[in-house]
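Researcher: Quick sanity check before group meeting.
Model: Go ahead. Protein one:
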Amino acid sequence: MVAKIHLGNSLYGALNYNGEKLNKEKGKLLDSNKIFNDGSGKLNIHRAFEDFKRWMPTHTKTERPMMHISLNPHPDDRLTDVEYARLAHEYMEKMGFGDMPYLIFKHEDIDRHHIHIVALRVRPDGTAISDQNNFYRSKDICRGLEKKYGLKPAERQRITPDMPITGLDPNGDIKRQVANIVKMVGMRWKFQTIGEFNAVLSLYNIRCEQTDGRVNGREYHGLVYFALDDDGKTIAQPFKASRLGKFSSRTAIDNRFERAKGKIDVTPTKGIVTDAMVISTGKDDFIDKLKEKNIDLILRFTSEGRIYGATFIDHNTMTVLNGSRLGREFSANALERWFNGDGQKPIVATQQPDVDRTQTNEGVNNEGQSMSSPPPVSDNGQPNRGRQNDTSQSTSRSQSGSRYQSQTSSGTQPKSDSYDQPTLPGLDLFQVGPGYDPQEEAFYRAMQRRKKKKRRGPII
Protein backbone atom coordinates (compact mmCIF):
# COMPACT_ATOMS: atom_id res chain seq x y z
CA MET A 1 0.00 0.00 0.00
CA VAL A 2 1.29 3.42 -0.95
CA ALA A 3 0.36 6.50 1.08
CA LYS A 4 0.66 10.04 -0.24
CA ILE A 5 0.42 12.94 2.21
CA HIS A 6 -0.22 16.52 1.15
CA LEU A 7 -0.24 19.38 3.66
CA GLY A 8 -2.21 22.47 2.70
CA ASN A 9 -4.29 25.42 3.79
CA SER A 10 -7.37 25.04 1.58
CA LEU A 11 -9.76 22.86 3.54
CA TYR A 12 -12.72 23.84 1.40
CA GLY A 13 -10.79 23.00 -1.78
CA ALA A 14 -10.04 19.47 -0.52
CA LEU A 15 -13.70 18.95 0.44
CA ASN A 16 -14.86 20.26 -2.92
CA TYR A 17 -12.47 17.93 -4.80
CA ASN A 18 -13.84 14.86 -3.06
CA GLY A 19 -17.42 16.15 -3.22
CA GLU A 20 -17.22 16.38 -7.02
CA LYS A 21 -16.16 12.72 -7.20
CA LEU A 22 -19.20 11.77 -5.14
CA ASN A 23 -21.57 13.93 -7.18
CA LYS A 24 -20.36 12.22 -10.38
CA GLU A 25 -20.98 8.83 -8.72
CA LYS A 26 -17.28 8.03 -8.88
CA GLY A 27 -16.89 7.63 -5.14
CA LYS A 28 -18.62 7.55 -1.76
CA LEU A 29 -18.19 8.78 1.81
CA LEU A 30 -17.28 5.71 3.86
CA ASP A 31 -16.91 7.06 7.37
CA SER A 32 -15.94 10.07 9.47
CA ASN A 33 -14.45 11.03 12.80
CA LYS A 34 -16.00 13.95 14.77
CA ILE A 35 -17.68 15.19 11.54
CA PHE A 36 -21.37 14.74 10.71
CA ASN A 37 -22.15 11.78 8.43
CA ASP A 38 -25.72 10.75 7.57
CA GLY A 39 -24.63 7.34 6.30
CA SER A 40 -25.90 7.86 2.74
CA GLY A 41 -22.44 7.99 1.23
CA LYS A 42 -23.05 11.58 0.06
CA LEU A 43 -21.34 14.73 1.25
CA ASN A 44 -22.82 18.07 2.12
CA ILE A 45 -19.75 20.20 1.48
CA HIS A 46 -21.04 23.29 3.30
CA ARG A 47 -22.15 21.28 6.35
CA ALA A 48 -18.84 19.43 6.51
CA PHE A 49 -16.87 22.67 6.21
CA GLU A 50 -18.80 24.23 9.10
CA ASP A 51 -18.17 21.13 11.23
CA PHE A 52 -14.44 21.34 10.60
CA LYS A 53 -14.44 25.05 11.52
CA ARG A 54 -15.84 24.20 14.97
CA TRP A 55 -12.66 22.27 15.72
CA MET A 56 -10.28 24.88 14.37
CA PRO A 57 -8.69 27.41 16.76
CA THR A 58 -9.35 31.10 16.25
CA HIS A 59 -5.62 31.84 16.17
CA THR A 60 -2.78 29.59 15.05
CA LYS A 61 0.72 30.05 13.69
CA THR A 62 0.47 26.94 11.53
CA GLU A 63 0.49 27.89 7.86
CA ARG A 64 -0.85 24.52 6.66
CA PRO A 65 -3.52 23.44 9.13
CA MET A 66 -5.04 20.57 7.10
CA MET A 67 -3.82 17.44 5.31
CA HIS A 68 -5.07 15.40 2.39
CA ILE A 69 -4.00 11.73 2.37
CA SER A 70 -4.50 9.03 -0.24
CA LEU A 71 -4.07 5.33 0.56
CA ASN A 72 -3.46 3.16 -2.50
CA PRO A 73 -3.50 -0.63 -2.05
CA HIS A 74 -2.05 -2.96 -4.68
CA PRO A 75 -4.30 -3.22 -7.79
CA ASP A 76 -4.81 -6.92 -7.09
CA ASP A 77 -6.16 -6.28 -3.59
CA ARG A 78 -9.97 -6.30 -3.44
CA LEU A 79 -11.42 -4.90 -0.20
CA THR A 80 -14.95 -4.23 0.97
CA ASP A 81 -16.08 -0.78 2.08
CA VAL A 82 -15.93 -1.89 5.71
CA GLU A 83 -12.35 -3.10 5.28
CA TYR A 84 -11.36 0.16 3.57
CA ALA A 85 -12.84 2.17 6.46
CA ARG A 86 -11.13 0.00 9.09
CA LEU A 87 -7.81 0.31 7.26
CA ALA A 88 -8.12 4.11 7.16
CA HIS A 89 -9.03 4.43 10.85
CA GLU A 90 -6.09 2.28 11.93
CA TYR A 91 -3.71 4.22 9.69
CA MET A 92 -4.84 7.55 11.20
CA GLU A 93 -4.54 6.15 14.72
CA LYS A 94 -0.95 4.99 14.16
CA MET A 95 -0.04 8.32 12.54
CA GLY A 96 -1.23 10.16 15.65
CA PHE A 97 -4.48 11.58 14.24
CA GLY A 98 -6.90 9.33 16.10
CA ASP A 99 -8.44 12.26 18.04
CA MET A 100 -8.52 14.68 15.08
CA PRO A 101 -11.60 15.33 12.90
CA TYR A 102 -11.42 13.70 9.46
CA LEU A 103 -13.48 12.24 6.63
CA ILE A 104 -12.82 8.98 4.73
CA PHE A 105 -13.72 8.80 1.01
CA LYS A 106 -13.51 5.93 -1.42
CA HIS A 107 -12.69 6.83 -5.04
CA GLU A 108 -13.89 4.55 -7.84
CA ASP A 109 -12.97 6.68 -10.87
CA ILE A 110 -10.23 4.21 -11.90
CA ASP A 111 -9.96 0.43 -11.79
CA ARG A 112 -7.67 0.64 -8.78
CA HIS A 113 -10.01 1.77 -5.99
CA HIS A 114 -8.33 3.83 -3.30
CA ILE A 115 -9.02 5.97 -0.23
CA HIS A 116 -8.80 9.72 0.36
CA ILE A 117 -8.74 11.21 3.86
CA VAL A 118 -9.28 14.90 4.64
CA ALA A 119 -8.20 15.82 8.18
CA LEU A 120 -7.16 18.70 10.42
CA ARG A 121 -3.69 18.70 11.92
CA VAL A 122 -4.20 21.65 14.29
CA ARG A 123 -5.66 21.04 17.73
CA PRO A 124 -8.26 23.37 19.31
CA ASP A 125 -5.50 24.94 21.47
CA GLY A 126 -3.60 26.03 18.32
CA THR A 127 -0.79 23.45 18.48
CA ALA A 128 -0.10 21.34 15.41
CA ILE A 129 0.71 17.66 15.09
CA SER A 130 4.31 17.41 13.91
CA ASP A 131 4.91 16.33 10.33
CA GLN A 132 8.53 15.41 10.99
CA ASN A 133 9.54 12.10 9.38
CA ASN A 134 6.00 11.67 8.04
CA PHE A 135 7.26 9.78 5.00
CA TYR A 136 9.23 7.17 6.93
CA ARG A 137 6.59 6.71 9.64
CA SER A 138 3.87 6.32 7.00
CA LYS A 139 5.92 3.78 5.07
CA ASP A 140 6.51 1.64 8.17
CA ILE A 141 2.82 1.80 9.06
CA CYS A 142 1.80 0.71 5.55
CA ARG A 143 4.16 -2.29 5.68
CA GLY A 144 2.63 -3.31 9.01
CA LEU A 145 -0.95 -3.00 7.74
CA GLU A 146 -0.09 -5.07 4.67
CA LYS A 147 1.08 -7.92 6.86
CA LYS A 148 -1.87 -7.62 9.24
CA TYR A 149 -4.54 -7.67 6.53
CA GLY A 150 -2.74 -9.92 4.06
CA LEU A 151 -2.30 -7.24 1.41
CA LYS A 152 0.24 -7.40 -1.38
CA PRO A 153 3.27 -5.15 -0.90
CA ALA A 154 3.08 -2.08 -3.10
CA GLU A 155 5.86 0.46 -3.62
CA ARG A 156 5.73 3.80 -5.35
CA GLN A 157 7.00 3.36 -8.89
CA ARG A 158 10.35 5.00 -9.45
CA ILE A 159 10.87 7.01 -12.61
CA THR A 160 14.03 5.97 -14.43
CA PRO A 161 15.58 7.51 -17.58
CA ASP A 162 15.07 4.31 -19.61
CA MET A 163 11.41 3.84 -18.67
CA PRO A 164 9.19 4.00 -21.79
CA ILE A 165 6.74 6.89 -22.02
CA THR A 166 3.21 5.73 -22.79
CA GLY A 167 0.26 7.81 -23.90
CA LEU A 168 -2.44 9.01 -21.52
CA ASP A 169 -5.07 6.38 -20.69
CA PRO A 170 -8.45 8.04 -19.90
CA ASN A 171 -9.48 5.01 -17.84
CA GLY A 172 -6.43 5.11 -15.57
CA ASP A 173 -5.24 7.39 -12.80
CA ILE A 174 -5.05 10.60 -14.84
CA LYS A 175 -3.23 12.71 -12.29
CA ARG A 176 -0.54 10.09 -11.79
CA GLN A 177 -0.12 9.58 -15.53
CA VAL A 178 0.20 13.32 -16.16
CA ALA A 179 2.81 13.63 -13.41
CA ASN A 180 4.85 10.69 -14.73
CA ILE A 181 4.76 11.90 -18.34
CA VAL A 182 5.74 15.46 -17.43
CA LYS A 183 8.61 14.19 -15.29
CA MET A 184 9.98 11.81 -17.93
CA VAL A 185 9.69 14.39 -20.72
CA GLY A 186 11.66 16.86 -18.62
CA MET A 187 14.34 14.26 -17.88
CA ARG A 188 14.91 13.16 -21.48
CA TRP A 189 14.09 15.95 -23.90
CA LYS A 190 15.88 19.20 -24.66
CA PHE A 191 13.67 22.23 -25.37
CA GLN A 192 14.00 25.99 -24.98
CA THR A 193 10.45 27.43 -25.07
CA ILE A 194 7.04 26.59 -23.67
CA GLY A 195 5.89 25.96 -27.25
CA GLU A 196 8.58 23.33 -27.78
CA PHE A 197 7.70 21.80 -24.38
CA ASN A 198 4.05 21.62 -25.41
CA ALA A 199 4.97 20.02 -28.72
CA VAL A 200 6.45 17.01 -26.91
CA LEU A 201 3.60 16.85 -24.40
CA SER A 202 1.08 16.82 -27.25
CA LEU A 203 2.45 13.43 -28.33
CA TYR A 204 1.04 12.05 -25.07
CA ASN A 205 -2.24 14.06 -25.02
CA ILE A 206 -1.13 16.68 -22.50
CA ARG A 207 -1.11 20.48 -22.77
CA CYS A 208 0.63 23.01 -20.54
CA GLU A 209 -0.39 26.65 -20.07
CA GLN A 210 1.31 29.51 -18.26
CA THR A 211 -0.61 31.35 -15.54
CA ASP A 212 0.49 34.84 -14.57
CA GLY A 213 -1.31 37.27 -12.32
CA ARG A 214 -1.44 39.06 -9.00
CA VAL A 215 -3.10 37.95 -5.76
CA ASN A 216 -3.19 40.18 -2.66
CA GLY A 217 -0.58 42.43 -4.23
CA ARG A 218 1.82 39.58 -4.96
CA GLU A 219 2.72 38.41 -8.44
CA TYR A 220 2.57 34.73 -9.25
CA HIS A 221 3.86 32.77 -12.24
CA GLY A 222 2.81 29.16 -12.57
CA LEU A 223 1.90 26.33 -14.91
CA VAL A 224 -1.32 24.37 -15.36
CA TYR A 225 -1.50 20.98 -17.09
CA PHE A 226 -4.49 19.61 -19.03
CA ALA A 227 -5.26 15.97 -19.88
CA LEU A 228 -6.68 15.63 -23.41
CA ASP A 229 -8.30 13.01 -25.58
CA ASP A 230 -7.24 12.22 -29.15
CA ASP A 231 -9.36 15.15 -30.43
CA GLY A 232 -7.65 17.64 -28.11
CA LYS A 233 -10.61 18.00 -25.73
CA THR A 234 -10.09 18.21 -21.98
CA ILE A 235 -11.07 15.01 -20.14
CA ALA A 236 -10.33 16.03 -16.54
CA GLN A 237 -9.94 19.02 -14.27
CA PRO A 238 -6.67 20.89 -14.91
CA PHE A 239 -3.80 20.15 -12.56
CA LYS A 240 -1.71 22.91 -11.03
CA ALA A 241 2.01 22.22 -11.08
CA SER A 242 2.05 22.25 -7.28
CA ARG A 243 -0.21 19.18 -7.28
CA LEU A 244 2.11 17.20 -9.56
CA GLY A 245 5.47 17.98 -7.98
CA LYS A 246 8.36 20.44 -8.02
CA PHE A 247 9.68 18.96 -11.28
CA SER A 248 6.64 20.41 -13.10
CA SER A 249 6.81 23.93 -11.63
CA ARG A 250 7.46 27.09 -13.63
CA THR A 251 10.89 27.45 -12.04
CA ALA A 252 11.91 23.88 -12.85
CA ILE A 253 10.82 24.14 -16.49
CA ASP A 254 12.52 27.54 -16.92
CA ASN A 255 15.74 26.01 -15.56
CA ARG A 256 15.47 23.25 -18.17
CA PHE A 257 15.22 25.94 -20.87
CA GLU A 258 18.52 27.43 -19.71
CA ARG A 259 20.34 24.10 -19.40
CA ALA A 260 19.26 23.03 -22.87
CA LYS A 261 20.76 26.09 -24.59
CA GLY A 262 24.31 24.81 -24.36
CA LYS A 263 23.45 21.21 -25.22
CA ILE A 264 21.38 21.53 -28.39
CA ASP A 265 23.07 20.94 -31.74
CA VAL A 266 20.75 21.64 -34.68
CA THR A 267 23.10 20.26 -37.35
CA PRO A 268 21.97 16.59 -37.33
CA THR A 269 18.27 17.48 -37.33
CA LYS A 270 18.68 20.16 -39.97
CA GLY A 271 20.49 17.76 -42.28
CA ILE A 272 17.71 15.16 -42.09
CA VAL A 273 14.93 17.74 -42.51
CA THR A 274 16.73 19.30 -45.47
CA ASP A 275 17.11 15.98 -47.27
CA ALA A 276 13.46 15.14 -46.67
CA MET A 277 12.28 18.52 -47.95
CA VAL A 278 14.32 18.27 -51.16
CA ILE A 279 12.67 15.01 -52.25
CA SER A 280 9.16 15.65 -50.87
CA THR A 281 6.24 16.56 -53.11
CA GLY A 282 3.91 18.04 -50.49
CA LYS A 283 2.78 18.19 -46.89
CA ASP A 284 1.82 14.56 -46.35
CA ASP A 285 4.86 13.28 -48.22
CA PHE A 286 7.12 15.58 -46.18
CA ILE A 287 5.65 14.39 -42.86
CA ASP A 288 5.91 10.73 -43.89
CA LYS A 289 9.54 11.05 -44.92
CA LEU A 290 10.37 12.72 -41.63
CA LYS A 291 8.65 9.92 -39.71
CA GLU A 292 10.79 7.41 -41.57
CA LYS A 293 13.80 9.21 -40.09
CA ASN A 294 12.23 9.23 -36.59
CA ILE A 295 11.28 12.91 -36.63
CA ASP A 296 7.79 14.24 -35.89
CA LEU A 297 6.51 17.52 -37.34
CA ILE A 298 3.94 19.29 -35.15
CA LEU A 299 1.97 22.00 -36.97
CA ARG A 300 -0.22 24.54 -35.15
CA PHE A 301 -3.12 26.15 -36.98
CA THR A 302 -5.26 29.24 -36.46
CA SER A 303 -9.05 29.04 -36.52
CA GLU A 304 -8.88 29.89 -40.23
CA GLY A 305 -6.56 26.95 -40.90
CA ARG A 306 -3.36 28.96 -41.37
CA ILE A 307 -0.12 27.48 -40.05
CA TYR A 308 1.28 29.71 -37.33
CA GLY A 309 3.72 27.28 -35.69
CA ALA A 310 5.97 24.42 -36.79
CA THR A 311 8.04 22.29 -34.42
CA PHE A 312 10.36 19.41 -35.29
CA ILE A 313 10.70 16.65 -32.67
CA ASP A 314 13.85 14.61 -33.27
CA HIS A 315 13.63 11.26 -31.47
CA ASN A 316 17.20 10.46 -32.51
CA THR A 317 18.81 13.31 -30.55
CA MET A 318 15.86 13.85 -28.14
CA THR A 319 15.71 17.48 -29.26
CA VAL A 320 12.73 19.75 -29.90
CA LEU A 321 13.27 22.63 -32.34
CA ASN A 322 10.96 25.29 -33.67
CA GLY A 323 11.25 25.54 -37.44
CA SER A 324 12.79 29.00 -37.27
CA ARG A 325 15.72 27.61 -35.28
CA LEU A 326 16.68 25.46 -38.26
CA GLY A 327 16.37 28.36 -40.70
CA ARG A 328 13.86 30.63 -42.41
CA GLU A 329 13.12 27.97 -45.02
CA PHE A 330 11.74 25.72 -42.25
CA SER A 331 9.65 28.35 -40.46
CA ALA A 332 5.86 28.34 -40.20
CA ASN A 333 5.52 31.06 -42.87
CA ALA A 334 7.63 29.09 -45.35
CA LEU A 335 5.66 25.89 -44.75
CA GLU A 336 2.35 27.78 -44.96
CA ARG A 337 3.33 29.11 -48.38
CA TRP A 338 4.36 25.63 -49.53
CA PHE A 339 1.37 23.70 -48.16
CA ASN A 340 -1.47 26.22 -48.41
CA GLY A 341 -0.18 29.07 -50.57
CA ASP A 342 1.25 29.16 -54.06
CA GLY A 343 2.87 25.75 -53.59
CA GLN A 344 6.40 27.07 -53.92
CA LYS A 345 8.77 24.81 -52.03
CA PRO A 346 11.30 26.60 -49.81
CA ILE A 347 14.76 26.75 -51.34
CA VAL A 348 17.19 24.86 -49.15
CA ALA A 349 20.93 24.38 -49.53
CA THR A 350 21.93 20.75 -49.20
CA GLN A 351 24.96 20.07 -47.06
CA GLN A 352 28.20 19.63 -49.02
CA PRO A 353 29.69 16.12 -48.73
CA ASP A 354 32.98 15.73 -46.95
CA VAL A 355 34.67 14.57 -50.19
CA ASP A 356 33.84 17.81 -51.96
CA ARG A 357 35.11 19.88 -49.06
CA THR A 358 38.36 17.90 -49.07
CA GLN A 359 38.88 18.48 -52.77
CA THR A 360 38.16 22.18 -52.33
CA ASN A 361 40.72 22.45 -49.55
CA GLU A 362 43.29 20.68 -51.71
CA GLY A 363 42.60 23.13 -54.52
CA VAL A 364 43.15 26.07 -52.20
CA ASN A 365 46.40 24.61 -50.95
CA ASN A 366 47.63 24.10 -54.50
CA GLU A 367 46.87 27.72 -55.40
CA GLY A 368 48.63 28.98 -52.27
CA GLN A 369 51.70 26.75 -52.80
CA SER A 370 51.76 25.48 -49.20
CA MET A 371 55.13 24.65 -47.70
CA SER A 372 54.27 20.98 -47.40
CA SER A 373 53.71 20.55 -51.17
CA PRO A 374 56.73 19.30 -53.16
CA PRO A 375 58.56 21.87 -55.27
CA PRO A 376 58.15 21.83 -59.06
CA VAL A 377 60.66 19.91 -61.15
CA SER A 378 62.83 21.61 -63.78
CA ASP A 379 63.50 20.37 -67.31
CA ASN A 380 66.58 18.47 -66.20
CA GLY A 381 64.58 16.52 -63.63
CA GLN A 382 65.97 18.39 -60.61
CA PRO A 383 63.79 20.14 -58.03
CA ASN A 384 63.62 23.85 -58.77
CA ARG A 385 61.91 26.54 -56.70
CA GLY A 386 63.12 29.56 -58.67
CA ARG A 387 61.78 28.73 -62.17
CA GLN A 388 58.05 28.52 -61.40
CA ASN A 389 56.05 29.89 -64.29
CA ASP A 390 53.17 32.31 -63.96
CA THR A 391 53.94 33.32 -60.36
CA SER A 392 55.45 36.34 -58.65
CA GLN A 393 55.83 37.08 -54.97
CA SER A 394 54.89 40.18 -52.96
CA THR A 395 55.55 41.00 -49.32
CA SER A 396 52.99 42.51 -46.88
CA ARG A 397 53.48 43.39 -43.20
CA SER A 398 51.07 43.81 -40.25
CA GLN A 399 51.49 46.35 -37.42
CA SER A 400 53.08 43.67 -35.26
CA GLY A 401 55.86 43.31 -37.79
CA SER A 402 54.91 39.81 -39.00
CA ARG A 403 55.21 39.19 -42.72
CA TYR A 404 53.04 37.00 -44.92
CA GLN A 405 53.94 35.92 -48.47
CA SER A 406 51.22 35.64 -51.12
CA GLN A 407 51.52 34.62 -54.71
CA THR A 408 49.59 36.15 -57.57
CA SER A 409 49.45 35.18 -61.18
CA SER A 410 51.59 37.51 -63.31
CA GLY A 411 52.90 35.43 -66.25
CA THR A 412 56.50 36.70 -65.75
CA GLN A 413 59.73 34.93 -64.90
CA PRO A 414 61.60 35.71 -61.66
CA LYS A 415 64.04 38.61 -62.03
CA SER A 416 66.93 36.86 -60.35
CA ASP A 417 68.39 33.43 -60.77
CA SER A 418 70.26 33.62 -57.48
CA TYR A 419 67.69 31.25 -55.94
CA ASP A 420 67.76 28.64 -58.66
CA GLN A 421 69.35 26.14 -56.31
CA PRO A 422 68.16 22.60 -55.83
CA THR A 423 66.35 22.04 -52.53
CA LEU A 424 65.30 18.99 -50.64
CA PRO A 425 61.63 18.51 -49.72
CA GLY A 426 61.02 19.24 -46.07
CA LEU A 427 64.01 21.63 -45.72
CA ASP A 428 62.20 24.67 -47.14
CA LEU A 429 61.83 26.23 -43.71
CA PHE A 430 65.59 26.64 -43.39
CA GLN A 431 66.09 28.49 -46.69
CA VAL A 432 65.67 32.21 -47.30
CA GLY A 433 62.81 32.91 -49.70
CA PRO A 434 63.15 35.25 -52.69
CA GLY A 435 60.96 37.85 -50.97
CA TYR A 436 63.66 38.67 -48.35
CA ASP A 437 65.54 41.99 -48.83
CA PRO A 438 67.97 43.03 -46.04
CA GLN A 439 67.84 46.76 -46.93
CA GLU A 440 64.05 46.81 -47.06
CA GLU A 441 63.87 44.95 -43.75
CA ALA A 442 66.18 47.47 -42.08
CA PHE A 443 64.16 50.40 -43.44
CA TYR A 444 60.90 48.82 -42.19
CA ARG A 445 62.28 48.36 -38.67
CA ALA A 446 63.52 51.97 -38.57
CA MET A 447 60.06 53.22 -39.55
CA GLN A 448 58.49 51.11 -36.83
CA ARG A 449 60.82 52.59 -34.19
CA ARG A 450 60.04 56.12 -35.42
CA LYS A 451 56.28 55.55 -35.17
CA LYS A 452 56.61 54.10 -31.69
CA LYS A 453 58.69 57.09 -30.58
CA LYS A 454 56.13 59.52 -32.01
CA ARG A 455 53.30 57.80 -30.08
CA ARG A 456 55.18 58.25 -26.80
CA GLY A 457 55.45 62.00 -27.42
CA PRO A 458 58.35 64.38 -26.75
CA ILE A 459 60.49 63.84 -23.70
CA ILE A 460 60.25 66.82 -21.28
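Researcher: Fine. The other one?
Model: Protein two, sequence then structure:
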Amino acid sequence: MAVKTHDVMHHAFLILVEHSGNTSLSSQGSGEMRLSVATLGSLKAAERLVSELITQGVSQIELSASFGAAGEAAVRTVVADSGAERTVMIGRVRFAT
Protein backbone atom coordinates (compact mmCIF):
# COMPACT_ATOMS: atom_id res chain seq x y z
CA MET A 1 0.00 0.00 0.00
CA ALA A 2 1.35 3.41 -0.94
CA VAL A 3 1.93 5.98 1.75
CA LYS A 4 0.30 9.29 0.92
CA THR A 5 2.14 12.42 1.96
CA HIS A 6 0.98 15.96 1.31
CA ASP A 7 -1.84 16.00 -1.26
CA VAL A 8 0.03 14.06 -3.96
CA MET A 9 1.40 10.51 -4.07
CA HIS A 10 4.90 10.84 -5.46
CA HIS A 11 6.67 7.70 -6.71
CA ALA A 12 10.28 7.69 -7.92
CA PHE A 13 12.18 5.09 -9.95
CA LEU A 14 15.96 5.43 -9.75
CA ILE A 15 18.26 3.67 -12.21
CA LEU A 16 21.99 3.56 -11.41
CA VAL A 17 24.27 3.53 -14.48
CA GLU A 18 27.73 4.32 -13.12
CA HIS A 19 29.25 6.51 -15.82
CA SER A 20 30.26 10.13 -15.49
CA GLY A 21 27.62 12.56 -16.73
CA ASN A 22 24.90 9.93 -16.92
CA THR A 23 22.30 11.78 -14.86
CA SER A 24 18.83 12.76 -16.01
CA LEU A 25 15.49 13.28 -14.28
CA SER A 26 11.99 13.38 -15.67
CA SER A 27 8.91 14.08 -13.57
CA GLN A 28 5.28 14.06 -14.61
CA GLY A 29 2.13 14.40 -12.63
CA SER A 30 -1.60 14.62 -12.88
CA GLY A 31 -4.10 15.08 -10.12
CA GLU A 32 -3.03 13.15 -7.05
CA MET A 33 -0.14 11.24 -8.68
CA ARG A 34 3.40 12.29 -9.55
CA LEU A 35 6.03 10.02 -11.11
CA SER A 36 9.76 10.75 -11.27
CA VAL A 37 12.24 8.63 -13.25
CA ALA A 38 15.97 9.25 -12.93
CA THR A 39 19.13 7.74 -14.33
CA LEU A 40 22.07 8.47 -12.09
CA GLY A 41 25.79 8.22 -12.77
CA SER A 42 26.88 7.60 -9.18
CA LEU A 43 25.63 6.59 -5.77
CA LYS A 44 26.50 10.07 -4.46
CA ALA A 45 24.22 11.60 -7.12
CA ALA A 46 21.47 9.18 -6.01
CA GLU A 47 21.89 10.19 -2.37
CA ARG A 48 21.60 13.88 -3.27
CA LEU A 49 18.50 13.24 -5.40
CA VAL A 50 16.85 11.16 -2.66
CA SER A 51 17.33 14.06 -0.23
CA GLU A 52 15.68 16.39 -2.73
CA LEU A 53 12.83 13.96 -3.43
CA ILE A 54 12.12 13.69 0.30
CA THR A 55 11.67 17.46 0.52
CA GLN A 56 9.25 17.18 -2.43
CA GLY A 57 7.13 14.62 -0.55
CA VAL A 58 8.13 11.40 -2.30
CA SER A 59 6.23 8.41 -0.86
CA GLN A 60 7.88 5.49 -2.68
CA ILE A 61 11.36 4.99 -4.10
CA GLU A 62 12.11 1.97 -6.31
CA LEU A 63 15.78 1.27 -7.00
CA SER A 64 17.17 -0.61 -10.00
CA ALA A 65 19.02 -3.87 -9.35
CA SER A 66 22.30 -2.09 -10.14
CA PHE A 67 22.14 -0.36 -6.73
CA GLY A 68 22.84 -3.67 -5.03
CA ALA A 69 22.55 -4.18 -1.28
CA ALA A 70 25.14 -1.50 -0.47
CA GLY A 71 23.38 1.12 -2.61
CA GLU A 72 20.02 0.27 -1.09
CA ALA A 73 21.53 0.60 2.39
CA ALA A 74 22.98 4.02 1.47
CA VAL A 75 19.57 5.23 0.26
CA ARG A 76 17.87 3.88 3.38
CA THR A 77 20.41 5.81 5.48
CA VAL A 78 19.58 9.05 3.66
CA VAL A 79 15.87 8.45 4.27
CA ALA A 80 16.42 7.56 7.95
CA ASP A 81 18.71 10.56 8.51
CA SER A 82 15.96 12.82 7.15
CA GLY A 83 13.43 11.35 9.59
CA ALA A 84 11.23 10.11 6.73
CA GLU A 85 11.60 6.34 7.26
CA ARG A 86 7.92 6.08 8.27
CA THR A 87 6.59 7.96 5.24
CA VAL A 88 8.93 6.80 2.44
CA MET A 89 8.81 3.19 1.26
CA ILE A 90 11.92 1.83 -0.47
CA GLY A 91 12.17 -1.18 -2.76
CA ARG A 92 14.84 -2.65 -5.02
CA VAL A 93 14.50 -4.78 -8.13
CA ARG A 94 16.06 -8.18 -7.67
CA PHE A 95 16.57 -10.81 -10.34
CA ALA A 96 15.95 -14.49 -9.65
CA THR A 97 18.99 -16.68 -10.19
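Researcher: One line on it for the slide.
Model: Confidence is low (pLDDT under 50) at residues 1-5.
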